[in-house]
Write a structure and sequence with these properties.
about 160 residues; mainly beta; four-stranded antiparallel sheet; three-stranded antiparallel sheet; 1 helix; about 40% strand; globular
Length: about 160
Amino acid sequence: SGFVSFAFHPQFSANGLFYTIHSEFVGVTPHNLGTLNPPLPTSIIQHSVVTEWEATDPSANVFSGASRELMRIESPHRFHNLQEIAFRPGAQPGSPDYRLLYLGSGDFGNITTGEPEQLQRLDTPYGAILRVDPLGGSFVRGGTTYGYGIPPSNPYA
């Protein structure tokens, strides 16, 4: 558990935003604590967490600012959870992918726990590349409000 990856927003020098992924061991917890997952048939032992950080002064050598949790995904295993996080490096202002955040999601140990069918479901983030707009407002799914936008061009939005 711990730090996994980070990405600077394409306009970091102006807005001070960057994003991190870390994992947290949580023991055996109840399902659906404001996460993206539907109920799973197995115990949850870890969460993958995406955090947005806003530096008060992007040019400072020491961080000072605020943060907010952008996303939390439950995991039945400690391996292959959220992995990489990135903005498309070649995207220019005005292009459809500019400012969209990509998240590489592994199998979350569902193969190891005997639940490989979780990877074929369209209602889980397992085994997918997630594309979100961190500054695109919020949306509601299943009674939970999420603090990021879903680009309308996402095929399974």
